[in-house]
User: Fold this.
Amino acid sequence: MVSKERFAQGMTFDGYVKFVGTPENLKREGSFGMPRKDYGEFLRKAFETAQLTDAQREAWQWIVSQPSGPAKMLVISEEWSSDCRREVPVLARLAQAGGLEMRIFARDGHTISSLAVPDPKESPNADLMAQFLRKRDGQTFQSIPIAAFYTKSFEHLYTYMEFPQIYRKDRVVAAIRAPKPGESKDDTAKRGLSDFFAFQQTPFFRLYANAAVDEIIAMLHERIRVGSLA
Assistant:
């Protein structure tokens, strides 16, 4: 699915942290109609504070020690995404703990893609994103983050997408941003967005990050033990 040469074109986590604060990145389109923000320091601190539990660390060491275990992690990210800000630092910690080579690619070009399928004319990494599209309820999405795990010889093992299964995001975020009595449409939009940003600072986001690690480790364990995920 991906060659050694194409994988090598991605950024390391440190390289990605530096990239998000560059003029090149900050001039790209931001989310919610707002300019891009430099999340470099946020990502760096999130990585520094991210730690594996004893059970996660021991299970992860068993997985990466297997002859057919993961050795490469390909990540597709955009730092305007709360899911990416939550999970890319813990993915980097997981890579470090297991000695995996990790490379990060931006999903979009200058503008945020709203297409179901990436357009190579808009994004230099459309070839990668096209391999990991989420299909749900008859629709196709360019969901991020993507974390694809490979063996040393680039055999694909498993792909983690967007958020852990216990984060029922559509329901949770819809409730957070739902209209309150007496609010105008504009008031609801502003208050809902503010409440969603505040939610990202709660312990629930750390819980979801931890759940992402559990899900990745559990799925890779099944892949190695059983030989498939189906």
Notes: The mean pLDDT is 96. The radius of gyration is 18 Å. The CA atoms of residues 153 and 227 lie 16 Å apart.
